């Protein structure tokens, strides 16, 4: 059984900072949203960050093996999330 902390992809930037991985722009952890530096942000701040991109891949941080729960989102659909 994997250690839950290592299995949480929301911590990969901290644990594997020297590994080439996709850029994390924000993480929802419990009821909190945090940016890529783990600073708490509001929903409005998250939308402002997202608007810097044309497309996003949204992936659950746990229990998403095999592509389960992955969303590919176009800019015009960001607010609907």
Can you characterise this structure?
With 81 residues, this protein is an alpha+beta fold. Helix content is 20%, strand content 22%. The strands form two sheets. Strands 1-2-3 form a three-stranded antiparallel beta sheet. A two-stranded antiparallel ribbon has the order 4-5. A hairpin with a 2-residue loop joins β1 and β2. The chain is globular and about 30 Å long.
Summarize this structure as a short list of keywords or feature phrases.
two-stranded antiparallel sheet; 20% helix; 22% strand; alpha+beta; 81 residues; single chain
How are the SSEs ordered, and which strands pair?
Blueprint: H1 4-7, H2 12-15, E1 26-29, E2 32-35, E3 40-41, H3 43-50, E4 55-58, E5 71-74
Antiparallel strand pairs: 1-2, 2-3, 4-5
Number of helices: 3
Tell me what portion of residues adopts beta-strand conformation. Answer: 15-25%
**What is the terminal separation in angstroms?**
32 Å
Structural class: alpha+beta
- In helices, the fraction of residues equals 10-25%
Radius of gyration: 13 Å
SSE string, helices as H and strands as E: HHEEEHEE
- Strand arrangement, major sheet: 1-2-3
The main sheet comes to: 3 strands, antiparallel
| Mean residue pLDDT | 76
Number of strands: 5
Give the gist of this structure.
By secondary structure, the chain is of the alpha+beta class. Helices cover 20% and strands 22% of the residues. The model has no long low-confidence stretch (mean pLDDT 76).
